[in-house]
Amino acid sequence: MKYTSCVTALVIALCLSLAGCGSSGHGDAQDRTKQGVTETEVRVGTSLSLSGHAGSFGRRMLRGVQCYLQHINAQGGVHGRAIRLVPYDDQYSPALCVSNTQKLIISDEVFCLFSYMGTATTVKVIPLVQEARIPFVAMLTGANLLREPFHPYIINVRPSYYQETEEIVRRLVDELDVTKVAVLYQYDAYGFDGLKGTEFALREHGLRPVARGTYARGTLKVRDAVDRIAASGAEAVVMVGTAEPCARFIELCRERGFTPMFHALSFVGAEALSRYLDGKTQGVFASLVVPPPSAPGAQQRFAAVQEYVQLLKEYAPEAEPDSVGLEGFINAKVLVEALQRAGRELDRPAFIKAVQSIRAKDIGIGTPLSYSIVDHQGLDHVFMTRFVDGHPAIITDWDRLREQLRRTESTQ
Questions:
Q1: Tell me: domain 162-288+384-411, CATH 3.40.50.2300, correct?
Q2: 22 pLDDT higher than 90
Q3: What is the C-alpha end-to-end distance of the chain, expressed in Å?
Q4: Are 173 and 209 in contact (CB under 8 A)?
Q5: Fold adopted by 6-16+26-158+300-379
Q6: Which one of 225, 329, 355, 381 is most buried, by most CB atoms within 10 A?
Q7: Is the CB of residue 326 less than 8 Å from the CB of residue 305?
Q8: Which residues contact 96 (CB under 8 A, 6 or more apart)?
C-alpha cells in the first residue's frame, strides 16, 4: 500500500508540465534545469552522516553508492558523461543538512540531490527542494513527509516506514499470534513516524501499543524506556531507532529477564545491531527494504547482491557487504537508470519524466521497480528477517518459526 494522493499528484504533475512549456522564453529558467550538466559530467550532491554517532551508517551507504558509480564511470559514464558525486557530512544534524543543501544547490550547482540519509535531516530540506525545483532522489528514510503530500521533485526508492511497520505488525499478529506490542522510538521526526505507523497498523487489528518508550537522538539513555516497556509485559517490541541505543535497550531488557521479540526497522541497521550485540541476536528480528547480502544463498538468488559484493571487493576491498551498503548501491542503480532513459539532452524535466517511465524494472532484488506520474516511490516490498548465527536471514516459513518460538517459550 502506498500512501500517496493520486488526485493531488496528477494535478501537480500537470501543472509542472504546463510550467515547463511556459518557460521556453526564459533563458535563466532553462539554464537552471540543466544546472550541473556539462559535456563531460553530471554533478550530483549528497548530505549524510559521515562522522558522529551515525557516521558508520552513512559511510557504509556511501561506499555502496560509490562502488556502483565508479563502475559506471569506468565504462564511460552515461551518454558520455561521468557522474561526479559531491558529498558533505551533516553528522545527522538537521541544521548542518540544510546548510549543506544550500551549498550544493547554490555553490556547487548540482543537477540533483541524491541518497540523503535520515528523517530528521531530510525533511528539513523539502522547502529548499521545492523552491529550487531540483530532483531529490533516493533518500535513505521511509518518512511519510517525503510521500504525503505528493512532491513532483521528490523521488523515493525504498518503501515507507508505514509500510515497514504495517508488515511487522501483520506478521506479529497474523502469523505469530502476538497481541501485546510495545514501541521503542527515538524522540525525533524519524521516531514519531515509526511510532505513528505502528499505531496505525495495530489499530487495523483492534489493538494499541501496550507501552511506549523513548530516548533522545544521539544518546544511549534508554533505561526509562526499559522500565516502562518491561513493566507492560509486551510480547514484542518494535524498535524505531539507531543501532547502538537499540542494542543497549536489548541488553538492559535481557539483564532483567525480559525477553520479548525485538523487531528493528531497517534504519536501525541490522548488521550494525548484531555487531553491537556481539552476535547475541537470539529473539531479534529486522525489517529490511533490500535482501540481506550475508544471508545464505543471497548471491545466488539475487543478481544485484552478487553484483554489489563483486564491485565492493573491487572498489572497497576492506569493506564488508551489508544491507545499508546494498541500499546505497540500489539507489545508484536507480539514478543511473533514470539518467540513461533521459538521454543525452539532459535536463531536470527530462530526468523526472525518465523516472516516471520506469515500469516493473527488474533491478536484481526479487521485487520490481515501478514509477508513474502519480507515484514517485519505486519499491514496496519489505523483507522480514530474523537473525541466524548473528546474520539477518529472510523468513520464508512462518509456521515453522511460530512452532520454534512456542518451543522456546515452553522451556523458559
A1: yes
A2: no
A3: 38
A4: no
A5: Rossmann fold (3.40.50)
A6: 329
A7: yes
A8: 47, 89, 90, 121
Q: Report how far apart, in Å, the C-alpha atoms of 127 and of each of 13, 55, 101, 103 are.
A: 18, 25, 11, 15
What is the pairing mode between strands 284-288 and 383-388? antiparallel
Give the chain's radius of gyration (CA, Å).
21
Residue 6 C-alpha cell reads as 493520486
Separation of alpha carbons 15 and 336, rounded Å: 27
pLDDT tens, residue by residue, 307-342: 999 999 999 999 999 999 999 999 999 999 999 999
Detail the DSSP E strand segments found in 106-146: 112-114, 136-137
The answer to whether the Cα torsion of 6, 291, 193, 46 is positive or negative is negative
Angle at Cα 22 formed by Cα 20 and Cα 24, nearest 5°? Answer: 80
Q: How many CB atoms lie within 10 A of CB 399?
A: 8
| Helix H or strand E encompassing 334 | helix 323-342
Show contacts of 168-172: CB within 8 Å, 24+ apart: 168/198, 168/201, 168/238, 168/263, 168/265, 168/287, 168/384, 169/198, 169/201, 169/202, 169/204, 169/205, 169/238, 170/201, 171/384, 171/395, 171/398, 172/236, 172/261, 172/263
Per-residue pLDDT reduced to its tens digit, 35-57: 999 999 999 999 999 999 899 99
- Stated pTM of the model: 0.91
Q: Do domains 6-16+26-158+300-379 and 162-288+384-411 have the same CATH topology?
A: yes
Measured distance CA(395)–CA(302) in Å, rounded: 16
Which residue ranges make up each domain of the chain?
6-16+26-158+300-379, 162-288+384-411
Dist CA 213 CA 384 (whole Å): 23
Q: Find the length of the chain.
A: 412
- Report the distance separating Cα 65 and Cα 58, nearest Å: 11
Q: Where are the alpha helices (DSSP H) in 233-295?
A: 243-255, 270-276
H helix intervals, 34-107:
55-74, 94-106
Q: Tell me, what's the pLDDT at 31?
A: 76
Check residue 29 and give its pLDDT: 52
Which residue shows C-alpha cell 547482491?
Answer: 305
The number of beta carbons lying within 10 Å of the beta carbon of residue 206 is 8
